[in-house]
Amino acid sequence: MPMFVKLAPAVAGVVHVSYRRVRCGKQGGVKFEITGNPNWNLVLVYNVGGAGDVNNVRVKGSNTGWIQMQRNWGQKWDTKGVDLRGQALTFQVVTSDGAFKVFRDVAPASWQFGQTFDGKINF
């Protein structure tokens, strides 16, 4: 609070702050950090750039169709009851500015929980 009151006055103990979104720059590809266990896959999607926030994620294993992921928390997305081990993974990501990106074969079939992969855009 001491720093905020240097920027704006405190009224009844509240410092009113306005935020505005700015476009994010990035270096390298979108990152996909895969954690979880055989029955629960949790993927952190980051280094998105542009709008910066992700609105939707789907994953496709080399032996499955597209699977809708659910927002778990922040930019972490999960699937429950789906075992994707032993399959190469492709991701579809939609950002808040409406950009639709497909990242094919981001993770090879030999991926392990705890690994991070660098996605390249494929249309």
UniProtKB/TrEMBL annotation:
The keyword Oxidoreductase does not apply. GO terms for cellular component: extracellular region; membrane. It is a peripheral membrane protein. One of its GO terms (biological process) is plant-type cell wall organization. The keyword Cell wall biogenesis/degradation applies. This is Expansin. Keywords: Cell wall, Cell wall biogenesis/degradation, Secreted. It is found in: Secreted, Cell wall; Membrane. It comes from Linum tenue. It comes from the Eukaryota. Belongs to the expansin family. Expansin A subfamily. InterPro entries: Expan_Lol_pI, Expansin, Expansin_CBD, Expansin_CBD_sf. Pfam families: Expansin_C.
